[in-house]
Amino acid sequence: MDLDQRRERILGAFLRDGRLTSIPARAAKRQVVLEHIVTVFEPGRKFAEKEVDAALRAFYERDWVSLRRYLIDTGLMAREDGLYWRTGGYVEV
């Protein structure tokens, strides 16, 4: 199975109608999901915490705070002075 097939299989297992059904417990699967989620944040733009929370709640109403923490902890986003910005993940060019 190639990487794209693996990615699609993981996303299919954890997303329904574009929303997260649960946060994967395994770090490798969680990383795939987080890399998918971070694409909603435009690279090069800073976001207020309220904007980040709204975007993450659209994916997972139950625990968007954990999603935000995971994005920071994995280096996909950074935070300073109440502003967040994307620092990793796939970018289509």
Characterise this structure.
With 93 residues, the protein is α+β, with helices and mostly antiparallel strands. Helix content is 47%, strand content 16%. It contains four helices and five strands; from the N terminus they run H-E-E-H-E-H-H-E-E. It has helices at 3-14, 27-37, 49-59, 64-73, and strands at residues 15-16, 19-20, 46-48, 77-80, 83-86. The chain has a three-stranded antiparallel sheet. A hairpin with a 2-residue loop joins strand 1 and strand 2 (19-20). Helix 3 (49-59) packs across helix 4. The longest helix has 12 residues, at 3-14. The chain is globular, with a radius of gyration of 13 Å.
Give unreliable regions as ranges: none
Q: SSE order, as H and E?
A: HEEHEHHEE
Number of strands: 5
- Mean of residue pLDDT values: 93
Number of helices: 4
Structural class: alpha+beta
The radius of gyration over CA amounts to 13 Å
Envelope shape? globular
Strand order of the largest sheet: 3-5-4
Compute the separation of the termini in Å: 25 Å
Strand content: 15-25%
Please give the largest β-sheet: 3 strands, antiparallel
Instruction: Give the proportion of residues in helices.
Output: 40-55%
